[in-house]
Design a protein that fits this description.
The complex is a heterotrimer of chains A (500), B (445) and C (127).
Chain A: H1 44-47, H2 64-76, H3 98-103, H4 107-110, H5 122-139, E1 143-145, H6 151-168, E2 175-179, H7 185-192, E3 196-200, H8 210-216, E4 221-227, H9 239-248, E5 252-256, H10 269-272, E6 276-278, E7 299-301, E8 313-316, E9 322-325, H11 341-377, E10 393-396, H12 398-404, H13 408-417, E11 424-425, E12 434-437, H14 445-464, H15 466-470, H16 483-488
Parallel strand pairs in A: 2-3, 2-4, 4-5, 5-6
Antiparallel strand pairs in A: 1-7, 6-7, 8-9, 10-12, 11-12
Helix pairs in contact in A: 5-11, 6-7, 11-14
Chain B: H1 8-17, H2 48-60, E1 69-70, H3 83-89, H4 92-95, H5 107-124, E2 128-129, H6 136-151, E3 155-159, H7 164-174, E4 180-184, H8 193-199, E5 204-210, H9 221-230, E6 234-238, E7 257-261, E8 277-281, E9 294-298, E10 304-308, H10 315-318, H11 331-369, E11 373-374, E12 384-389, H12 393-402, E13 405-406, E14 409-410, E15 421-425, H13 432-443
Parallel strand pairs in B: 1-13, 3-4, 3-5, 5-6, 6-7
Antiparallel strand pairs in B: 2-8, 7-8, 9-10, 11-12, 12-15, 14-15
Chain C: E1 7-8, E2 13-18, E3 21-26, H1 28-34, E4 39-41, E5 48-49, E6 54-59, E7 64-68, E8 73-78, H2 88-91, E9 100-104, H3 116-126
Antiparallel strand pairs in C: 1-2, 2-3, 3-9, 4-6, 5-8, 6-7, 8-9
The chains are: A alpha/beta (500), B alpha/beta (445), C alpha+beta (127).
Chain lengths: 500, 445, 127
């Protein structure tokens, strides 16, 4: 296409970002016009003790139509689950049901104030109790707090519950053991809870090295933090021995529940010997990721830990009505109000829709789909751990790098040209050039086959034309970015012309 | 109802392709001892129609504040949300997307966040803002932790006039041992620089205040900021952004970090969650900022583009040395806030603020005139104020509820030390007629 | 490839001795592994370093690595140019990409470091 190709007028809208909302509209544009004030004006400078705003903030001047177009254009540059396959490992990008979006917006939910009298929120309390009961049944752990706003927040909450428990036992301990394959939030949450970290290596099968674990466990260890199935998508067959070893030194076992989508109705962390876990409602229970949030990270704990849960907790009274209460030794609060209630409504709607059998069927299909993809890809992309996987699996791009100088990053960027969101790359850290696929149960066989075909095609492109992959993507709204420049020349906000 | 598009036939084909005869063959690595031998004890799944009826019944078992004449505030407020906001956040390209780790296909999310960061900087007067956090309370705590890292000091002083729930969250986090919390006592509904100066020392990393505070009063930020800086501590201020059109931003009083609860900007109350924590600071401290940040750069063709940047602060790279364990942001709530601010614009935001302030002062005068209330404090306030009810607030509250009013928040239910006080917030939604009727009804009790 | 007049340690730092002063930087292998350097966090003049201690951090877009002191001493100069031109560590790691100069407290520590040849063998073994 030459510069003067008449088929593509030069003044047609460009791809990629156009104007910021601040650069749109004109000074006279207005969207919402407030009604006339029906009470007397008050002299702000006096009333606000001399703190009336002197210089107005710079906000957009746009009409509603300009807002609609602006966000239409932004949406056109965004890839969501509705756009196509999104097989991000450990993220569980399953379909987000539309009923959930409608019900969380019902005025009887969205219009609730957190300090309304208990009698006026019986439905909300009933929903939270119902959700808590369902999560207790699914996890095998009876004590539930819905308060944490995210998985990482749940990890921190559980560590603080553990701390309170050990302190109450008269034995505050100092360390938490974490495997090297753990997600970054694990050590970060442990550090925020004031514990030191001992890292243990995984064994040759990608599982916890039981001997290394036993060597690391002593009476100074407060907890083991583990993901099971683990971050390689493998179920640790020694899980009972692991939790027993942890308990033998008086420590507690925590399960990072990010991978719950593999095991609903098949096994339960409580039955594996875990004392606590968090669940990601925005992964396993279909609530949308929202471009980064909000999610929710409820924590489920064993009976001995229940007295330490943060509050207030919604409870069902003997007469069938609902109230709120605090446990005897609650650690306090990890945020304001009850938690991300709007997310609870969505998750509860999902659980009601699927029921127990539906949740089990979802996990079974998630595991089958992952194994199917793994079998079809492992011949081309080496599988570091060749055994049946759970709902996700990890391939290595190391062969492509060695033979053709093509990195996992290049493969991921080329997938974008085929309209497929890349899987998780470069995590877990223990696999070289790792590629972690989690298709989820809401991809059809056709879509699974397409992802497989495209991955095989890209492997072929790596052999015949590695430069093509180094330059990918080509068809997206923007191409590869200069991320180093973003760090070295930080431009983190727009500035009004007068302020420059 | 279920959402998998895989037919029985396709499932069987996939089983054959992996060399399994039945699904449970794929679960052999799960030891028999921990396999669940029974179905989950949950009700059977429902059709969409049945599920929608069940949820509607739960919703109908509530009496939402939005269906009453509500004067409830205390950190969560009933403002008018323009229709365009929900239409934007309902777009699946926004709400079904993940964190924008692949920027080439996430420019929508990334530009949203960049615009939101800009707006927060404009409202607060600070240099840089992050992509948002869970809520105001956790943003407040993260500010304390950040100050402690910057100053390499262990103690923080929190004003006793800050929301009691936020102070509980601060204490809960402090039990980790990472910081020590000292509470500055309240006098006449505010804290004073003199009291702060008596408490502060060279082990204090920050002074944490809110203005307006929990009781709605404006704190003397100028003198408090000076007291903090005189001891070499940072000054952390929490604000209500709905008032940013009418109140001078904390940056003018030397604030080093500004945080708050952004729910009033275009987000439903939703029983207090999901909320919107915002967090802004000075350029000098940006490397200690928790949470995600979006920056602008160019792509290989020279196109302007946006990207998550300075990621080495975050947990996925720095792990236990990260500035925070936070791995998400409240992106969808931040988008709602940005659309709201675009919809109201600068004049609209100022007009909402003016209306809230004028109406709150009108209501306070009206309630005092009934003789049923007493003013415990005379400190300046914006759109929220506490009055002492001369009789039993619980009965008043219950009776007014029966008459269709949410008569503020009975503070005795939140903090026994505030028994007898009722906190009233007035937003632009309340009309003169409603306020006159409320005053008349409450006087007649 | 690796300058013969320098000494090297296992953390991929190099030392150039200038009288009582040691100039310290990271090796070509290290800068290549890191990718484009976007930020360096260095100590202040006057700071005391002990051999083996971390004295700073070096960042690329997606990674952070600690910098370890190969020898003990007091920091007498820091390369301020790296504040605005950190990429010089990639383009000239042994020259303009130097990081700190320290006044040696124990010159015998240099004997424990590797020669260029020994370092090359060490790198070949690691890869």
């Amino acid at each position: 296409m030459t510069a003067s190709d008449a088929r593509f007028p030069t003044s047609a809208p460009s791809r990629g970002p156009r104007a910021l909302i601040f650069e749109t509209g004109s000074p006279e544009s207005r969207c919402v016009v407030a009604p006339e004030l029906d009470v007397p004006e008050v002299p702000l400078d006096t009333v606000l003790a001399g703190c009336a705003r002197a210089q107005a903030p710079a906000l957009p001047h746009v009409t509603e139509g300009e807002i609609a177009r602006h966000y239409h254009h932004l949406a056109s540059m965004n890839f969501g689950v509705d756009s196509g396959s999104y097989p991000l490992g450990s993220c569980t990008m399953k379909y987000n049901p539309r009923l959930n979006e409608d019900v969380c917006r019902l005025e009887g939910f969205a219009g609730l104030h957190p300090y309304q009298p208990i009698e006026t929120i019986q439905g909300a309390l009933g929903l939270m109790v119902g959700l808590s009961d369902a999560l207790a049944e699914i996890s095998g752990l009876p004590g539930v707090t819905l308060q944490p706003a995210a998985g990482a927040h749940g990890e921190f909450t559980a560590m603080m519950v553990f701390r309170a428990y050990h302190t109450a036992m008269g034995d505050p301990r100092k360390r938490v053991v974490i495997p090297d394959a753990a997600h970054g939030t694990n050590p970060a949450s442990v550090a925020m809870a004031g514990y030191e970290i001992t890292t243990i290596a995984s064994d040759a099968n990608g599982a916890v090295d039981l001997d290394a674990l036993k060597a690391a466990l002593d009476t100074d260890v407060a907890a083991l933090m583990l993901t099971n199935p683990n971050t390689l998508g493998l179920f640790d067959p020694n899980i009972v021995a692991i939790t027993e070893a942890v308990h033998a030194v008086g420590a507690l076992a925590y399960c990072d529940g990010a991978n719950m989508n593999a095991i609903m109705g098949k096994t339960r962390p409580g039955d594996m010997g875990f004392d606590a876990m968090h669940i990601n409602l925005h992964k396993t229970f279909s609530t949308p990721h929202g471009g980064g949030g909000p999610g929710a990270g409820p924590v489920c704990v064993s009976a001995p830990l229940t007295p330490f849960l943060p509050g207030p907790l919604p409870v069902r009274l003997d007469d069938g009505t609902f109230s709120v209460g605090w446990t005897d030794h609650s650690i306090g609060r990890v945020r304001s109000s009850f938690g991300n209630f709007g997310v609870f409504v969505r998750a509860y709607a999902y659980i009601l829709a699927l029921g127990g059998d539906g949740l089990r069927a979802a996990s079974e299909q998630a595991v089958l789909s992952a194994n199917y993809m793994k079998e079809k890809l492992k011949g081309t992309y080496p599988l570091p751990f060749d055994r049946p996987c759970m709902h996700e699996f990890v391939l290595s791009g190391a062969r492509l790098r060695k033979e053709h100088g093509v990195h996992t990053l290049d493969v991921a960027k080329r997938l974008l040209d085929y309209g497929i969101h890349p899987p998780t790359i470069y995590f877990p850290l223990i696999v070289d050039e790792s590629i972690m696929f989690e298709p989820t149960e809401t991809e059809s066989l056709e879509d699974l086959d397409r992802m497989i075909d495209v991955m095989l095609t890209i492997a072929g492109e790596a052999a015949s034309d590695p430069e093509l992959l180094h330059g990918a993507p080509y068809s997206t709204p923007v191409r590869r970015l200069d991320e180093a420049r973003a760090v070295k020349q930080p431009d983190l906000r727009w500035r009004p012309p007068s302020a420059r | 109802m279920q959402f998998s598009p895989v037919s029985r036939g396709h499932r069987d084909a996939m089983l054959r392709a992996v060399g399994a005869t039945k699904i449970d063959d794929l679960f052999e690595s799960v030891p028999a001892a921990v396999r669940l031998a029974r179905p989950l004890d949950l009700p059977d799944g429902l059709s969409e129609m049945e599920a929608s009826f069940a949820l509607r019944a739960l919703a109908d078992a509530n009496t939402p504040a939005t269906a009453l004449v509500s004067f409830a505030g205390a950190g969560c407020y009933d403002h008018y949300v323009p229709a365009i906001v929900d239409h934007v956040i309902r777009r699946p390209e926004f709400f079904t997307a993940y964190t924008p780790y692949q920027p080439e296909v996430s420019q929508g999310t990334l530009q949203n966040i960049y615009e939101f960061q800009t707006m927060i900087c404009e409202l607060t007067g600070m240099d840089v803002a992050n992509a948002s956090m869970y809520d105001g309370a956790t943003a407040f705590v993260e500010a304390a932790l950040m100050a402690s890292r910057i100053k390499k000091r262990h103690k923080v002083i929190v004003a006793g006039s800050v929301h009691p729930e936020w102070r509980v969250v601060l204490r809960t986090y402090a039990a980790s041992g990472n910081i020590e919390v000292v509470t500055c006592p309240v006098e006449n509904g505010v804290i004073t620089a003199a009291t702060v100066t008596a408490l502060i020392d060279d082990s204090t990393a920050a002074l944490l205040v809110a203005s307006p505070n929990f009781l709605g009063h404006l704190e003397d930020l100028a003198s408090l900021g000076e007291a903090a800086h005189a001891a070499g501590a940072l000054f952390v201020v929490s604000v209500n952004p709905i008032l940013s059109g009418v109140l001078e931003p904390p940056s003018s009083f030397g604030a080093d970090i500004v945080v708050g609860e952004g729910q009033p900007l275009g987000n439903a109350m939703s029983l207090g969650g999901p909320g919107l924590g915002f967090f802004a600071c000075r350029t000098a401290h940006v490397r200690q900022l928790p949470g995600r940040i979006v920056g602008r750069t160019v792509d290989v063709d020279g196109r302007g583009a946006f990207v998550l940047t300075m990621q080495t602060r975050e947990q996925h790279i720095r792990r236990e040395k990260a500035t925070s364990n936070i791995c998400s942001n409240h992106a969808l709530n931040a988008l709602a806030a940005a659309v709201y601010l675009s919809a109201v614009g600068v004049e609209g935001l100022a007009s909402v603020g003016r209306a809230c302030v004028a109406k709150a002062h009108y209501l306070r005068d009206a309630l005092l005139a009934t003789g049923a209330f007493d003013a415990p404090y005379e400190a300046p306030f914006a759109h929220e104020f506490a009055l002492r009810y001369m009789k039993d607030p619980a009965s008043m509250h219950a009776e007014m509820l029966r008459r269709g009013y949410l008569a503020g928040v009975d503070l005795g239910t939140i903090d026994p030390g505030m028994d007898g006080l009722v906190l009233f917030a007035v937003t632009e939604k309340r009309t003169k007629a409603e306020m006159d009727a409320f005053a008349k009804e409450v006087a007649s009790l | 490839m690796n300058p013969a007049d320098l000494r090297y340690d296992k953390e991929h730092e190099w030392v150039r001795v200038e009288g009582d002063t040691a100039v310290i930087g990271i090796s070509d292998f290290a800068q290549d592994q890191l990718g484009e350097v976007v930020y360096v966090d260095l100590p202040d003049v006057g700071d005391e370093l002990a051999a083996g201690d971390t004295f700073g951090e070096i960042e690329s877009v997606k990674s952070v690595s600690e910098l370890f002191a190969p020898v003990s001493g007091t920091v007498v100069e820091v390369n301020d140019e790296l504040d605005t031109a950190s990429e010089v560590i990639n383009s000239d790691p042994y020259g303009a990409g130097w990081m700190v100069k320290i006044e040696l407290s124990d010159a015998s520590q240099l004997d424990a470091l590797m020669s260029a040849g020994e370092y090359e063998a060490f790198v070949a073994n690691e890869a």
